[in-house]
TrEMBL record:
EC number from the UniProt entry: 5.2.1.8
Organism: Candidatus Lachnoclostridium pullistercoris
All copies of domain PpiC, residue ranges: 168-253
GO molecular function, one term: peptidyl-prolyl cis-trans isomerase activity
Protein name: peptidylprolyl isomerase
InterPro entries the UniProt entry points to: PPIase_dom_sf, PPIase_PpiC, PrsA_foldase
Signal peptide: none
Amino acid sequence: MRILNRWNLLAAALAAGAFLTGCQGGIPMISRVKEIEGYPINQAMIVAATEKNRYEDAYTSQLWQVTLDEEGTTVQTFFLEQVEQFLRELKTVSLLAEEQGVQLNGQEQSLVSQLSEEYFGGLTAEDIAYMGVSEEDVEALYSDYCLANKAVTELTKDTDLEVSDSEAKVIDLQQIEVWDQGTADSVLAMVQEEGADFARIAGEYSVNPEIDRQLARGEEDAAFEEAAFALQTGEISGVIQAGDAFYIVKCTNDYNEEATRERKGELELLKKERAFRTVYDEFAKDHAVSFGEDFWDGVDFSGGGCTTTNFFELYREYFPE
């Protein structure tokens, strides 16, 4: 359950610890960290309630008391830690934006106001009571979220994000996976016979039910990838040993154009994230956003009739990626 990935905030999960600097000669160490207060609980509840309800829709409300480790950490505790981490990063990036002179322009501010009005207008009385929010709270959070995303774009605009077709290339395969060399050799002989039905043989002999698949670079063992990407459409590999398994693959499409285009976008986003992380890391080590230890005390996970789930979905309608 990686909340930050879903929300597409590019900043990495960073610990806001105390970073100290000092000089030689016995001079006491002095903290350079700026302590910054996080969001108020009512604004934090917008995020918490949105994702709480979304997870309950998928997994029911019974998931919150499930324990995750021997220490008895519950899903609820872990979930709130992730929400808090997201809010910490959001505040940090918005402060970084201000320091770097990144601001919302008039059109963006107008859209944020319209967005906030629509979101708040769609809340039920139960939603508002549970979160304890006003339209001003909604607009403040949307403003920071929009500013943070703009900062990521602005501070990485000069970064080379180009990804080649070769680097992003995705191919379509059918694969047979077996556990010993002897079986692999026998199956290879079968699929090499004239008129052999590779998919039928795979269904009969493969220990992995996943027969049809796509493959991008960096996803599999090097030997597997080297053999697979050397194939042209319709060609069948020899026996490939990767780890403890043996494979035979047939290339059904040596260049999936649509999947390659999507993969290229993913790799460009990853490059963008890495570039931004460098800037973020330097800033975050001296700016510690904190929430009190009892910040979430009193939060009632029964929900009180709150059903809102569209805070981030609505944002993407106004600010498409």
